[in-house]
Amino acid sequence: MVVRGVPERLANDAWWLDDEDPPKGLRAGPVLLLVVLCADLLIWDFRPGAGLAIWFLVAGMATFLTLYRALDRRRSLTALAVLIICVAPLFEVVQLGTFLVALAGLMTCGVILAAPVFAPQGLTRAVLRLPGAGIVQTCRDIFAMRVSTPSTGSVKSVLLDWALPAGIGALFLTLFAAANPFVDQWLVALGQFDMDLLPEFARVLLWAMIALAIWPLLRLATMIGNLMRPASRPTCSVQLALLNGRSVSRALVVFNLIFLMQTVMDIGYLWGGAALPEGMTYAEYAHRGAYPLLVTAVLAGLFALLAQPYLGAAIWVRRLLYLWIAQTVLLVVSSILRLDLYVDVYGLTRLRFAAFVWMGLVALGLVLIIMQMVGRHSVGWVLQRAFGMGFVAIYCCNLFNIDGFIARNNLADHRPGDFYLCQLSEGAVPAIRADELRTGYDLCGSWGPHLSTRKDWREWGYRNARLHRSLATLEAAQ
């Protein structure tokens, strides 16, 4: 197939335009129209909620429709399970985190459906490449478009013959109506045309954005080969001069001594109850050390990964690395204790909650490094599992009402930070209202968080419904 004005390489790639080379499923064009129509019905002019979650499921089914002839039941069920698990948090609440998880699940679902083999490493590579490759594929398809010439006398032929004169003629009439009031009056008298019948610009923009975003998923049959192709590994003769067997062994001795000093001090001050220097409180001691020690632990983990090729055959060097990583784990535990002491005095915030989660992930990551060294696994083994733990942490946090937990934690012990609580989202409303009913004190007044009302089923969210039930239970108990 050769398209006039389009390079042959691009035209040959546009299988969706060639009747002689049908795809392994329904054509992408009609499926795209279906997805855009569903987006208009489920998303437009509604608060993001269940409608958005259902649309993600529709988009996954649309991808299936373009590939279904080449799929087996096991592959289809796996992709469907991934999609449902990743979209589920959107039914809980629509926020940036749940949207990104659902988007990642949709891309993963499409790659699983289109992949010739089910290889986790290749699937991960394909998902990461999909956004960039999708932009390139969309541009190539746009440039490769053509419309076949229909037979004379057919309905399609008549429509095409009148498309140019009708379209350009309407443009000229619009310009004349703007320049000549008589033409404007004639058009109004003849057609009584209501401008409100035209779709809003924002609505058309939504259609365009949905179409551009979903198109690469409908073209995965063509893209999957390039997406899963292993990346070429460029040869590099440059080595880090500072990393060698001698420097690594000496560094491990020095690092263990430094970390041992910090570990002994933490044991004395945090667990042993030793007296702090004059003028310093436990809250100040905890705050000064929590975040710097966490950064130290992250750097220690990176060094442990980089130093492994230079450990040599000496067993004592490897044992020094084990000891250092173990001390780093204790360092993270110390950071968690420090932050907990600080929260007891100054209250919990979103940033401090995120710090708790991050500290836990760092500690688990260090344990993974020990497992990797004992099992003689590659660095990629650690990175894949660390990425998986991070995804699970984000997923669980999206299902957890963090603002409600912060409000309950701070109000339980009357910690400071009332002004901060009044800046939280609607998730904190039941906890704040419960405190107001218990104390009789209006904590936030009219400028605090308020529980929104969903007016349509497409705006429904499970967390919002639970909050309404909790608030109704509190009011009924009074």
Tell me what portion of residues adopts beta-strand conformation: under 5%
Number of domains: 3
- The helix content, as a percent range, equals over 70%
Q: What's the count of strands?
A: 0
Distance between the termini: 76 Å
The helix tally amounts to 19
Which regions are unreliable across 5 or more consecutive residues at pLDDT < 50?
1-23, 234-239
Oligomer classification: single chain
Mean pLDDT: 78
What general outline do the C-alpha atoms trace? Answer: flat
How many strands, what sense, and barrel or not for the largest sheet?
none
Q: What would you say about this model in short?
A:
The protein has 478 residues and is mostly helical.
Can you give a write-up of this model?
The protein is an all-alpha fold. The chain has 3 domains: 8-148 and 218-227, no CATH class; 245-344 and 351-389, no CATH class; 404-477, no CATH class. The protein has helices at residues 8-13, 28-42, 50-65, 73-92, 96-114, 120-143, 155-179, 181-191, 201-218, 220-228, 245-271, 282-307, 315-346, 350-375, 379-399, 402-412, 418-421, 429-439, 462-477. The radius of gyration is 30 Å and the shape is flat. The relative contact order is 0.09. Residues 1-23 and 234-239 have low confidence and may be disordered.
Which characteristics define this entry?
3 domains; disordered N terminus; 478 residues; mainly alpha; flat
Topology:
Layout: H1 8-13, H2 28-42, H3 50-65, H4 73-92, H5 96-114, H6 120-143, H7 155-179, H8 181-191, H9 201-218, H10 220-228, H11 245-271, H12 282-307, H13 315-346, H14 350-375, H15 379-399, H16 402-412, H17 418-421, H18 429-439, H19 462-477
Helix pairs in contact: 2-3, 2-9, 3-4, 3-5, 4-5, 5-6, 6-9, 6-10, 7-8, 11-13, 12-13, 12-14, 13-14, 14-15, 16-18, 18-19
